[in-house]
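Hello,

I think I submitted the magnesium ion job twice by accident. Can you confirm which output corresponds to this input? Input:
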Amino acid sequence: MSGPYGVRLLSLVVPCYNESESISKFFASVIPVLESIDAMRFEIVLVNDGSSDDTLDKLIAYSRRDARVRVVDLTRNFGKEAALTAGLDEALGDAVIPMDADLQDPPSLIPELVMRWREGAEVVLAQRASRVCDSWLKRVTAGAYYRIHNKMSDQKLPVNVGDFRLMDRVVINALKQMPERRRFMKGLFAWVGYKTAIVRYERESRSAGHSKFSGWRLWNLALEGITSFSTIPLRSWTYIGILIALGAFCYGTFIVARTLILGIDVPGYASLLSVLLFLGGIQLIGLGVVGEYVGRIYDEAKGRPIYLVRRRYQDTGQDKLIASGRRVIRIDRGHVSSGR
Ligand code: UDP
Ligand code: MG
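Support: Only one job matched these inputs. Its output is below.
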Protein backbone atom coordinates (compact mmCIF):
# COMPACT_ATOMS: atom_id res chain seq x y z
CA MET A 1 0.00 0.00 0.00
CA SER A 2 2.93 2.33 -0.47
CA GLY A 3 2.42 5.67 -2.15
CA PRO A 4 4.43 7.15 -5.03
CA TYR A 5 8.20 6.50 -4.95
CA GLY A 6 7.79 4.09 -2.05
CA VAL A 7 6.92 6.89 0.34
CA ARG A 8 4.65 5.46 2.95
CA LEU A 9 2.26 7.12 5.33
CA LEU A 10 2.61 6.97 9.09
CA SER A 11 -0.44 7.83 11.21
CA LEU A 12 -0.21 8.98 14.77
CA VAL A 13 -3.47 8.51 16.65
CA VAL A 14 -3.88 10.65 19.73
CA PRO A 15 -6.95 10.54 22.00
CA CYS A 16 -7.29 13.85 23.85
CA TYR A 17 -9.46 14.48 26.87
CA ASN A 18 -8.91 17.80 28.61
CA GLU A 19 -5.32 17.97 27.43
CA SER A 20 -5.22 21.74 26.90
CA GLU A 21 -1.98 22.07 28.87
CA SER A 22 -0.14 19.28 27.07
CA ILE A 23 -1.00 20.00 23.46
CA SER A 24 1.55 22.64 22.51
CA LYS A 25 4.34 20.60 24.12
CA PHE A 26 3.06 17.57 22.27
CA PHE A 27 3.29 19.17 18.84
CA ALA A 28 6.61 20.82 19.61
CA SER A 29 8.25 17.50 20.37
CA VAL A 30 6.42 15.19 17.98
CA ILE A 31 6.58 17.06 14.66
CA PRO A 32 10.41 17.39 14.45
CA VAL A 33 10.75 13.66 15.19
CA LEU A 34 8.24 12.72 12.49
CA GLU A 35 9.90 15.04 9.99
CA SER A 36 13.25 13.42 10.66
CA ILE A 37 12.10 10.00 9.44
CA ASP A 38 13.01 9.70 5.79
CA ALA A 39 10.88 8.23 3.03
CA MET A 40 7.85 8.62 5.23
CA ARG A 41 4.93 11.02 5.12
CA PHE A 42 2.90 11.40 8.25
CA GLU A 43 -0.49 12.47 9.53
CA ILE A 44 -1.59 13.13 13.08
CA VAL A 45 -5.15 12.12 13.89
CA LEU A 46 -6.31 13.81 17.07
CA VAL A 47 -9.52 12.58 18.62
CA ASN A 48 -11.20 15.06 20.90
CA ASP A 49 -12.98 12.83 23.40
CA GLY A 50 -15.55 15.36 24.60
CA SER A 51 -13.10 17.65 26.39
CA SER A 52 -14.70 20.27 28.60
CA ASP A 53 -11.78 22.71 28.37
CA ASP A 54 -10.40 24.48 25.27
CA THR A 55 -8.62 21.37 23.92
CA LEU A 56 -10.75 21.33 20.77
CA ASP A 57 -10.04 24.98 19.92
CA LYS A 58 -6.32 24.39 20.29
CA LEU A 59 -6.47 21.29 18.13
CA ILE A 60 -8.42 23.10 15.40
CA ALA A 61 -5.89 25.93 15.50
CA TYR A 62 -3.11 23.42 14.83
CA SER A 63 -5.04 21.74 12.05
CA ARG A 64 -5.37 25.15 10.39
CA ARG A 65 -1.65 25.66 10.40
CA ASP A 66 -0.67 22.19 9.30
CA ALA A 67 -2.50 20.10 6.72
CA ARG A 68 -0.94 16.96 8.16
CA VAL A 69 -2.97 17.42 11.34
CA ARG A 70 -6.53 16.13 11.40
CA VAL A 71 -9.05 16.51 14.18
CA VAL A 72 -11.98 14.22 14.86
CA ASP A 73 -14.43 15.67 17.34
CA LEU A 74 -16.59 13.15 19.21
CA THR A 75 -20.00 14.20 20.48
CA ARG A 76 -19.16 13.53 24.14
CA ASN A 77 -16.66 11.76 26.35
CA PHE A 78 -16.76 8.14 25.24
CA GLY A 79 -13.67 7.03 27.15
CA LYS A 80 -10.15 6.36 25.97
CA GLU A 81 -10.88 2.95 24.44
CA ALA A 82 -13.65 4.35 22.23
CA ALA A 83 -11.61 7.45 21.32
CA LEU A 84 -8.75 5.21 20.30
CA THR A 85 -11.10 3.08 18.22
CA ALA A 86 -12.34 6.24 16.48
CA GLY A 87 -8.77 7.29 15.74
CA LEU A 88 -7.79 3.89 14.37
CA ASP A 89 -10.86 3.93 12.12
CA GLU A 90 -9.96 7.37 10.79
CA ALA A 91 -6.24 6.75 10.31
CA LEU A 92 -5.15 6.15 6.73
CA GLY A 93 -1.52 5.21 7.32
CA ASP A 94 0.42 2.15 6.20
CA ALA A 95 1.57 2.08 9.79
CA VAL A 96 -0.33 3.45 12.76
CA ILE A 97 0.93 4.45 16.19
CA PRO A 98 -1.54 5.21 19.00
CA MET A 99 -0.02 7.65 21.42
CA ASP A 100 -1.03 9.59 24.55
CA ALA A 101 -1.19 13.37 24.37
CA ASP A 102 0.74 13.82 27.62
CA LEU A 103 4.12 12.75 26.15
CA GLN A 104 4.34 9.79 28.51
CA ASP A 105 5.04 7.81 25.37
CA PRO A 106 8.36 9.30 24.21
CA PRO A 107 8.25 10.55 20.59
CA SER A 108 11.98 9.84 20.33
CA LEU A 109 11.08 6.15 20.20
CA ILE A 110 9.05 6.50 17.00
CA PRO A 111 12.01 6.21 14.55
CA GLU A 112 13.01 2.96 16.26
CA LEU A 113 9.47 1.60 15.99
CA VAL A 114 9.45 2.50 12.29
CA MET A 115 12.84 0.85 11.80
CA ARG A 116 11.65 -2.44 13.28
CA TRP A 117 8.53 -2.25 11.14
CA ARG A 118 10.63 -1.76 8.02
CA GLU A 119 12.60 -4.81 9.06
CA GLY A 120 9.41 -6.81 8.73
CA ALA A 121 7.56 -6.74 12.05
CA GLU A 122 3.82 -6.22 11.76
CA VAL A 123 3.46 -5.08 15.36
CA VAL A 124 6.21 -3.30 17.26
CA LEU A 125 5.48 -3.12 20.98
CA ALA A 126 6.99 -0.44 23.16
CA GLN A 127 7.60 -2.05 26.52
CA ARG A 128 8.32 -0.08 29.66
CA ALA A 129 11.66 -1.10 31.12
CA SER A 130 10.45 -0.15 34.59
CA ARG A 131 7.60 1.57 36.37
CA VAL A 132 9.69 3.91 38.49
CA CYS A 133 7.51 6.92 37.70
CA ASP A 134 4.40 5.15 39.03
CA SER A 135 3.41 5.06 42.68
CA TRP A 136 4.12 1.96 44.75
CA LEU A 137 0.44 1.08 44.84
CA LYS A 138 0.06 1.36 41.06
CA ARG A 139 3.13 -0.81 40.50
CA VAL A 140 1.90 -3.56 42.82
CA THR A 141 -1.67 -3.55 41.50
CA ALA A 142 -0.54 -3.42 37.87
CA GLY A 143 1.79 -6.38 38.46
CA ALA A 144 -0.99 -8.36 40.13
CA TYR A 145 -3.39 -7.48 37.33
CA TYR A 146 -1.14 -8.73 34.56
CA ARG A 147 -0.57 -11.97 36.49
CA ILE A 148 -4.27 -12.61 37.09
CA HIS A 149 -5.32 -11.64 33.56
CA ASN A 150 -2.69 -13.84 31.96
CA LYS A 151 -3.63 -16.80 34.18
CA MET A 152 -7.27 -16.50 33.24
CA SER A 153 -7.28 -15.71 29.55
CA ASP A 154 -5.89 -17.52 26.55
CA GLN A 155 -4.47 -14.39 24.94
CA LYS A 156 -1.61 -13.26 27.14
CA LEU A 157 -1.12 -9.54 27.59
CA PRO A 158 2.53 -8.58 27.23
CA VAL A 159 3.60 -7.19 30.63
CA ASN A 160 4.01 -3.39 30.95
CA VAL A 161 2.98 -2.65 27.39
CA GLY A 162 0.43 0.12 26.95
CA ASP A 163 -1.35 1.26 23.83
CA PHE A 164 1.88 2.84 22.53
CA ARG A 165 2.98 0.56 19.70
CA LEU A 166 3.29 0.51 15.94
CA MET A 167 0.82 -1.52 13.92
CA ASP A 168 0.90 -2.32 10.24
CA ARG A 169 -2.15 -1.64 8.06
CA VAL A 170 -3.04 -5.36 8.04
CA VAL A 171 -3.28 -5.29 11.83
CA ILE A 172 -5.48 -2.20 11.79
CA ASN A 173 -7.77 -3.84 9.23
CA ALA A 174 -8.01 -6.89 11.48
CA LEU A 175 -8.88 -4.68 14.46
CA LYS A 176 -11.58 -2.95 12.45
CA GLN A 177 -13.28 -6.31 11.96
CA MET A 178 -13.79 -6.73 15.69
CA PRO A 179 -17.44 -5.91 16.26
CA GLU A 180 -17.55 -5.64 20.03
CA ARG A 181 -18.94 -2.49 21.65
CA ARG A 182 -17.14 -2.90 24.96
CA ARG A 183 -13.58 -2.45 23.85
CA PHE A 184 -10.57 -3.39 25.92
CA MET A 185 -7.98 -2.31 23.38
CA LYS A 186 -4.95 -3.93 24.97
CA GLY A 187 -6.76 -7.24 24.86
CA LEU A 188 -7.91 -6.77 21.27
CA PHE A 189 -4.36 -5.86 20.25
CA ALA A 190 -3.12 -9.08 21.84
CA TRP A 191 -5.92 -11.13 20.34
CA VAL A 192 -5.09 -10.36 16.70
CA GLY A 193 -1.56 -11.72 17.00
CA TYR A 194 0.78 -11.02 14.01
CA LYS A 195 4.56 -10.93 13.85
CA THR A 196 5.66 -8.92 16.85
CA ALA A 197 8.88 -7.16 17.84
CA ILE A 198 9.56 -5.46 21.17
CA VAL A 199 11.38 -2.20 21.86
CA ARG A 200 12.09 -1.21 25.46
CA TYR A 201 11.89 2.32 26.83
CA GLU A 202 11.74 4.35 29.99
CA ARG A 203 8.34 5.92 30.61
CA GLU A 204 8.31 9.59 31.52
CA SER A 205 6.02 11.29 34.00
CA ARG A 206 3.12 13.27 32.61
CA SER A 207 4.27 16.47 30.84
CA ALA A 208 1.35 18.53 32.17
CA GLY A 209 -2.15 18.13 33.55
CA HIS A 210 -3.18 15.08 35.54
CA SER A 211 -4.05 11.45 34.87
CA LYS A 212 -7.67 10.74 33.96
CA PHE A 213 -7.47 7.24 35.35
CA SER A 214 -8.35 7.17 39.02
CA GLY A 215 -8.11 4.01 41.09
CA TRP A 216 -11.80 3.30 40.51
CA ARG A 217 -11.52 3.73 36.72
CA LEU A 218 -8.48 1.46 36.64
CA TRP A 219 -10.33 -1.16 38.69
CA ASN A 220 -13.19 -1.07 36.19
CA LEU A 221 -10.76 -1.29 33.30
CA ALA A 222 -9.23 -4.36 34.94
CA LEU A 223 -12.66 -6.00 35.33
CA GLU A 224 -13.43 -5.09 31.73
CA GLY A 225 -10.23 -6.78 30.60
CA ILE A 226 -10.87 -10.01 32.47
CA THR A 227 -14.55 -10.33 31.59
CA SER A 228 -13.83 -9.51 27.94
CA PHE A 229 -11.26 -12.20 27.53
CA SER A 230 -12.11 -14.98 29.95
CA THR A 231 -15.09 -17.01 31.08
CA ILE A 232 -13.17 -18.58 33.96
CA PRO A 233 -14.98 -16.37 36.52
CA LEU A 234 -18.24 -17.93 35.29
CA ARG A 235 -16.99 -21.47 35.20
CA SER A 236 -15.35 -21.28 38.62
CA TRP A 237 -18.81 -21.18 40.23
CA THR A 238 -19.45 -24.75 39.12
CA TYR A 239 -16.36 -25.87 41.01
CA ILE A 240 -17.09 -23.73 44.05
CA GLY A 241 -20.59 -25.29 44.10
CA ILE A 242 -19.19 -28.82 43.83
CA LEU A 243 -16.74 -28.16 46.66
CA ILE A 244 -19.41 -26.77 48.98
CA ALA A 245 -21.85 -29.58 48.16
CA LEU A 246 -19.13 -32.14 48.83
CA GLY A 247 -18.31 -30.51 52.16
CA ALA A 248 -22.00 -30.43 53.10
CA PHE A 249 -22.42 -34.10 52.17
CA CYS A 250 -19.45 -35.17 54.32
CA TYR A 251 -20.66 -33.09 57.25
CA GLY A 252 -24.18 -34.51 56.83
CA THR A 253 -22.87 -38.08 56.90
CA PHE A 254 -20.88 -37.24 60.01
CA ILE A 255 -23.96 -35.84 61.77
CA VAL A 256 -26.11 -38.87 60.85
CA ALA A 257 -23.43 -41.24 62.15
CA ARG A 258 -22.97 -39.24 65.31
CA THR A 259 -26.72 -39.15 65.96
CA LEU A 260 -26.96 -42.94 65.45
CA ILE A 261 -24.11 -43.58 67.85
CA LEU A 262 -24.47 -40.85 70.46
CA GLY A 263 -28.15 -39.90 70.12
CA ILE A 264 -29.60 -36.43 69.57
CA ASP A 265 -27.91 -33.55 71.35
CA VAL A 266 -29.26 -30.00 71.56
CA PRO A 267 -28.56 -28.27 68.22
CA GLY A 268 -26.91 -24.89 68.23
CA TYR A 269 -28.62 -22.26 66.17
CA ALA A 270 -25.46 -20.11 65.93
CA SER A 271 -23.65 -22.59 63.70
CA LEU A 272 -26.78 -23.01 61.59
CA LEU A 273 -27.18 -19.31 61.09
CA SER A 274 -23.55 -18.66 60.24
CA VAL A 275 -23.51 -21.42 57.63
CA LEU A 276 -26.75 -20.05 56.19
CA LEU A 277 -25.44 -16.50 55.94
CA PHE A 278 -22.12 -17.66 54.53
CA LEU A 279 -23.83 -19.63 51.78
CA GLY A 280 -26.21 -16.72 51.10
CA GLY A 281 -23.19 -14.48 50.58
CA ILE A 282 -21.48 -16.97 48.30
CA GLN A 283 -24.62 -17.27 46.20
CA LEU A 284 -24.90 -13.51 45.83
CA ILE A 285 -21.30 -13.24 44.69
CA GLY A 286 -21.93 -15.96 42.12
CA LEU A 287 -25.03 -14.16 40.96
CA GLY A 288 -23.06 -10.93 40.66
CA VAL A 289 -20.48 -12.57 38.43
CA VAL A 290 -23.18 -14.04 36.21
CA GLY A 291 -24.84 -10.61 36.18
CA GLU A 292 -21.61 -9.02 34.99
CA TYR A 293 -21.61 -11.24 31.93
CA VAL A 294 -25.35 -10.85 31.32
CA GLY A 295 -24.82 -7.08 31.40
CA ARG A 296 -22.14 -7.42 28.78
CA ILE A 297 -24.41 -9.50 26.57
CA TYR A 298 -27.07 -6.80 26.99
CA ASP A 299 -24.62 -4.08 25.96
CA GLU A 300 -23.47 -5.99 22.92
CA ALA A 301 -27.02 -6.92 21.93
CA LYS A 302 -28.07 -3.28 21.82
CA GLY A 303 -25.53 -2.85 19.06
CA ARG A 304 -25.09 0.87 19.55
CA PRO A 305 -22.20 2.56 17.76
CA ILE A 306 -18.96 2.71 19.75
CA TYR A 307 -18.69 6.48 19.29
CA LEU A 308 -20.32 9.33 17.41
CA VAL A 309 -18.40 11.92 15.41
CA ARG A 310 -19.66 15.48 15.52
CA ARG A 311 -17.25 16.89 12.99
CA ARG A 312 -13.90 16.40 11.32
CA TYR A 313 -11.42 19.19 10.73
CA GLN A 314 -8.58 19.33 8.26
CA ASP A 315 -6.96 22.11 6.31
CA THR A 316 -7.12 20.88 2.73
CA GLY A 317 -5.72 24.12 1.37
CA GLN A 318 -8.41 24.25 -1.32
CA ASP A 319 -10.46 27.11 -0.03
CA LYS A 320 -7.40 29.32 0.19
CA LEU A 321 -8.05 29.81 -3.53
CA ILE A 322 -11.66 30.68 -2.90
CA ALA A 323 -10.34 33.25 -0.42
CA SER A 324 -12.97 32.41 2.11
CA GLY A 325 -12.46 33.50 5.68
CA ARG A 326 -12.72 29.98 7.05
CA ARG A 327 -9.93 27.77 5.91
CA VAL A 328 -10.89 24.81 7.99
CA ILE A 329 -13.50 22.86 6.15
CA ARG A 330 -15.61 19.99 7.16
CA ILE A 331 -15.02 16.73 5.37
CA ASP A 332 -18.16 14.89 6.07
CA ARG A 333 -18.01 11.18 5.46
CA GLY A 334 -21.37 10.61 7.06
CA HIS A 335 -22.38 12.11 10.34
CA VAL A 336 -22.72 8.92 12.27
CA SER A 337 -19.78 6.60 12.33
CA SER A 338 -20.41 3.18 13.72
CA GLY A 339 -16.74 2.39 13.94
CA ARG A 340 -16.90 -0.39 11.39
N1 UDP B 1 -8.12 9.98 27.41
C1 UDP B 1 -9.24 10.03 26.58
N2 UDP B 1 -10.49 9.87 27.14
C2 UDP B 1 -10.68 9.65 28.47
C3 UDP B 1 -9.52 9.57 29.29
C4 UDP B 1 -8.27 9.74 28.74
O1 UDP B 1 -9.13 10.24 25.38
O2 UDP B 1 -11.82 9.52 28.90
C5 UDP B 1 -6.78 10.16 26.82
C6 UDP B 1 -5.94 11.25 27.48
O3 UDP B 1 -6.20 12.52 26.93
C7 UDP B 1 -4.52 10.79 27.16
C8 UDP B 1 -4.66 9.27 27.16
O4 UDP B 1 -6.04 8.99 27.00
O5 UDP B 1 -4.08 11.22 25.89
C9 UDP B 1 -4.13 8.66 28.45
O6 UDP B 1 -4.74 9.25 29.56
P1 UDP B 1 -3.95 9.53 30.91
O7 UDP B 1 -2.62 10.13 30.61
O8 UDP B 1 -4.85 10.29 31.81
O9 UDP B 1 -3.78 8.06 31.47
P2 UDP B 1 -2.51 7.43 32.24
O10 UDP B 1 -1.28 7.84 31.47
O11 UDP B 1 -2.54 8.01 33.60
O12 UDP B 1 -2.78 5.97 32.20
MG1 MG C 1 -0.70 9.56 30.81
